[in-house]
Amino acid sequence: MIQASSVAIYGVGLIGGSVALALRAAGYTGEIIGYGRRASELARAVDLGVVDRYGLDAGDVAAQAQLHLVCVPVLAMRQVFDAIASQLKPGDVISDVGSTKQSVIEAARAAFGELPGGFVPAHPIAGTERTGVSAAFDSLYRNRLAILTPTEASTEAAAMEVERLWQACGARTIRMGAAHHDDVLAATSHLPHMLAFALVELLATRPDHDEIFMYAAGGFRDFTRIASSSPDMWRDIALANRGAVAANLDALILRLQDLRSAIACEDADQIESVFRRAKQARDAYVNLTEQTPDP
Amino acid sequence: MIQASSVAIYGVGLIGGSVALALRAAGYTGEIIGYGRRASELARAVDLGVVDRYGLDAGDVAAQAQLHLVCVPVLAMRQVFDAIASQLKPGDVISDVGSTKQSVIEAARAAFGELPGGFVPAHPIAGTERTGVSAAFDSLYRNRLAILTPTEASTEAAAMEVERLWQACGARTIRMGAAHHDDVLAATSHLPHMLAFALVELLATRPDHDEIFMYAAGGFRDFTRIASSSPDMWRDIALANRGAVAANLDALILRLQDLRSAIACEDADQIESVFRRAKQARDAYVNLTEQTPDP
Q1: Strands B31-35, B93-96: pairing kind
Q2: Same domain for A144 and A219?
Q3: From B225, B255, B276, residue closest to A219, measured CB to CB
Q4: Which residues in chain A are contacts of B99 at CB distance < 8 A?
Q5: Which domain holds residue A210?
Q6: Would you state the pLDDT for residue A131?
């Protein structure tokens, strides 16, 4: 269990709320304080037993906590870092849950002047398409992966506290460089989200969109699930990781153009070999995930 | 229930096998005869209670049945139509389950000389990423939609028998023109499959593909489920509906290029408006499907 006797959650939605619930479920007895901009949502978080109390001033909240977890959209993190910078105490541990890591580190450097030893960026690979504190649940991170991307300034003590946090939530932890994280996630998470959003938006703007959706098959529901994700959050991710996202979009557009040519030229072998490699890789991926319990 | 006293299923895999099981579950007491190319798979279908018996000669099988349901990949239908053409009897009803309808009608016209009155093409919008008769189950079509695309030669009597077939399987039926079907399905089904195959193949051919898949989130599994579909079947669909599939790929590639530009130019409003329209459409679609029982 974490050593901090009090935790501040900045941004109490699905992600931050689920951390709070998971800590409680794991037996954490310290105080959990929420920060946000909307008092109504925070009052709801208290009613739901997600946080013990809340504050609307990030600096005030920061002064009362030892472990600080920033769970706002990635481009809003700078603002939170700015607000808490002057209230951090020696030994405080600061982490975040952002889906992009280089941009968060830049924001922290700008806000804190130099990167604090206690700052260990992280990214739990979990989430649903739902949003808000009402969607939070204590098992969101169970058997998921939390990637830590310590900076050159991070202390080992702080990194271990962040590992304890995610392990208490049921996640496995791993460490990698922020740049590598951003490249890998652009391919496996950011690119699929861009595709799902673009596809659904294409269909939604057809003149016959009502009919289109009426005839969509079951597979369509799964395929487009991530297009129900938060537009704000994903706008921020697309911008914060724009280099890697654009590069991955370019690579995919080339593949789609090749596939389109193969279809137009009736190159059956080429089409089938693309589909077959994809099926093999996807089946292997599913076998891999099924080897871990409760995937 | 259907009026035919015997049914021939040409191609006893997930789709054809599930029709047979659904007919039985609905109380059909006539004979169900399977046709296929591999005796081992057909013997398995008999063992599993999916069909009563089987034949390896499509013409022989056709001579013994009144309702003929062709469930082979769309580009293999011509061959089956050729083989059964001379064995059809007056009053026989012929249908299929192909995901593209204009190509099937062309194949029938070529094989039968002129389109038989008993021929009513159809497409049940259902399926899973699994294949083979072992994957068949009797509720695959329950609360699903079966689209009939009668030709100008189809008799009303035959169309009603095909409707009874799908209604006995638990599906709702609807009729529309074959060209309209192919256009709508290109957008809602064929395009998403092309995207899923292309994305997974892109990732699978990266040098770091093992690591890539290791860090894929839960959403990735849903998003790529359809990339585990049958490469043969989907190669055929891409080719059989190549005009509409290519046009939809072109439209999507343009959207992806626009989105890529918006990301590279940091046009936050444009990015967010795409994502927001997509989320609204997808949420509305889910609400729509949740209004029908057991979606």
Answers
A1: unpaired
A2: no
A3: B225
A4: none
A5: 181-264
A6: 82
